[in-house]
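Continuing the series of single-chain predictions for the mutant panel. This is the parent chain; the variants come on the following pages.
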Amino acid sequence: MRTRPGIYYGVPFEEYRAIDAVNHSLLRTLETKSPKHALHERDNPRDDTPALLLGHAAHALVLEPETFSKRYAIAPEVNKRTKAGKGAWAEFCESAGEMTVITQQDYETVKEMATAIEAQRLHRLVRTGKAEVVLIWNDAETGLLCKARLDYLHQERGLFVIDFKTTEDAREDSFAYSIQKYGYYSQAGFYCQGVEEVLGQTPDYTFLVAEKKQPYAVAAYQLQCATLSAGTEFCRRALRHYARCLEADNWPGYPDDVTPIDMPQWAIDREMGIASYQM
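Parent structure:
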């Protein structure tokens, strides 16, 4: 088990997940839901959803294509209700062993995404760095042991992190909304903090974004200082909050008191027929 602060390469995901340290997902759950939810997530790691499995497979094929065939097995299309199909499936599962199984359709999707990304100018930079880089550090303020797993770290011509995201819509205005909605800004703040603690430098942070449907359009966006600062501040508050919960061994859920509640104002306006409301 790796718990000493530093930078590590080639760490299998399951080994990384087992490291007893604070990650961004935990902090995000703490602040957007409750400490009770964060404690449950810490003690009961979630299985990957189909969407996350597709994203992980795309990461592997784009960032570490040389390892893809060792990590992923393509499921054959067989009729499991027949004797022959059951036999073929059992044989496949035995040969796949510990590899992650994905469908033929998902494989075709990630292969087409990878082909589209190869035409993107930023792609040349994911051949001169390291993929799936693990950072472990002690937060200077709280003393908490923290961990992060960077999609890609480039160090040859400047220091920057490449964060590969799959999305339904890679247009600038749409992805800017995704940065806020899905907490990509706080993830960036947390990852940059880790790089600063371990390597002593502040990195640039770039999103490589690929759409999940044809024609698999691709875009690259460099995160600007204002958004990165907001992400860093979010993580600072969350780390302090987590440290307090840990010290007191107190993990509250939602408030115990009865709280007044209304629908969003736009919904009230719509139901009341207020003329200013627009669809």
